[in-house]
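Reviewer has doubts. Consider these tokens.
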Amino acid sequence: MASARKIRKVDKENRRFNEAWTNLYFFVESNAKCLCLICGETVAVLKAENVKRHYTLKHASTHNRYEGDQRKEKALLLQKNLVSQQNIFRKVDDESKKYAKVSFVIAEKIARNMKPFSEGDFVKECITSAIEILCPEKEKAIKCVSLSRNTITRRIEELAKNTKMQLNELCKNFETYSIAIDESTDITDTPQLAIFVRGVDSTFNITEELLALCPMKGNCTGAAVFKEIDTALEKAGLTYDRLVGIATDGAPAMIGKEQGLRGFIQRKLESLNVSKDQILWYHCIIHQESLCSKIFKFDHVMDNVVKAVNFIRSRALNHRQFRNFLDEINAEFSGIPYFTEIRWLSRGRTLKRFYDIREHVAAFLEAKGNLCINFDDDKWMNDFSFLVDITDKLNELNVRLQGKEKLIHNLFGEVTAFQKKLDLWIAQIADSNYAHFPCLQKQSHISTMNREFFVSELKRMQEEFARRFKDFRACEDQLKFFSMPFDVDPADAPVELQMELNELQSDFDVKSQFLNRNLMDFYKYGLPHTQFPNLTCYAKRFLVLFGSTWMCEYLFSRMQLIKSNKRNSLSDAHLEDELRLALTNIPADIEKLLDDSKQFQVSH
């Protein structure tokens, strides 16, 4: 029976090269193979009969004349020739790797600066022109570097893949992590779902990176968003039992408890027997601040300002004449920006610039016969001045909330401080004190009715802040235990932290570390982790929380630069690759890419 027949395996016979074959048959061992020094062919099986048969059939007639010492010398000569040939190929390979490394470095810079893939040819042309002047003898070297569009495309694909692999390895070591999610459409109206991850490992190293950019080809429902997130987490090796926070834009598809993302994730946690209370959900703190700022309608002010700005900006002749007018009178500013409703800072910037050049605007509008604004109306000017001041303060808060790697307690602290400022402003304006409202302070006639109106508007904003930030306020005590462990009452802390907080507050050495380091460094270097294990775990939970989706918004602004009208055919995969390299803090391992088993072709 064939099934019962014993089949010998060559690799199990432990056959080895016999050094005597070198002088007998002119064979050597090279790369675990038996190589003929005469013709360069190899014998598949290390067996004396096979080696002897090859020599007898192909070389015996010409090489049997070598005997004794002469045969040994011939074998040595053939071996030297082989080594010389191998060194030549190795040198060529090393040179090609240098050229390939240059193309990788340039490709990475092209991606980080969000330039088109075709920029490689332009870069090569510039370098070549410079070398022809500065060092003509190096001209051949740069011409060997391949920077064609296809090469740059491949390089960026490999760099992005390498960076993502490194991120996946880091994700495996996360003890806790959180995600930030937002969605926006690109230039081709394709919804792109951005997923950012922030995680911490056992040594308190924090990683904040783009996890995935997912094109949503269908409807952006809660089920579709959950499917993309679930896939992204699985590919990165991130499990739900380590997920502690999710920040979203507050859309129904995200926070809906039945058909929204929140409902699907909670059901997923239940199926895995993971407590759904472990995840803290946050509506982006910057988005909420922006929504609070919109409570100030002041339509009678904004409508007139927008009409005046549009009258100047929407007609090329008016815009040109207005700029020339400002130049003639040596005005501080050369123009006025459009107002864009969807941009966070647009209202404040437009109002502030309009206020600064209001006299010039009034003169220009009067010359043009456009009387859409009555600058002599005291009530309108009071409302306008108040709106300029308060939007300027809201813009200042908005800017403070923006940025990478912001810890959630710092963001909430900025909001809390602004709420306290509102209390102060309400009391001061009610008492006719406009010290913190410089534009309003310049107005000569502010009636009691105006003052009461401003107070009521500030109170409405105060109520709006309290309503929108109630989720953050609900976990204020938890944030205090994390950010101010020496200033809280241990009795108010969770049971698992009470004993450790008592010990911590009695340890003067640790308190000294807390006072002399920032919070991140304190938990990383100043807190004895083995002595305070529960407090260590508690800190890791809050260190990774996203308080906003600012990183997603930042990605979308970069996306508009990369996938523009001139690059609208850019594929979704290449868009993600370029954005990943443009935003990542993880340097690509170019040396590893060069060491991979591949051949690098030089440019011709």
Notes: Strands lie at 27-30, 33-36, 42-43, 176-185, 191-200, 206-215, 243-248, 280-283. The CA atoms of residues 299 and 305 lie 10 Å apart. The chain has a mean pLDDT of 87.
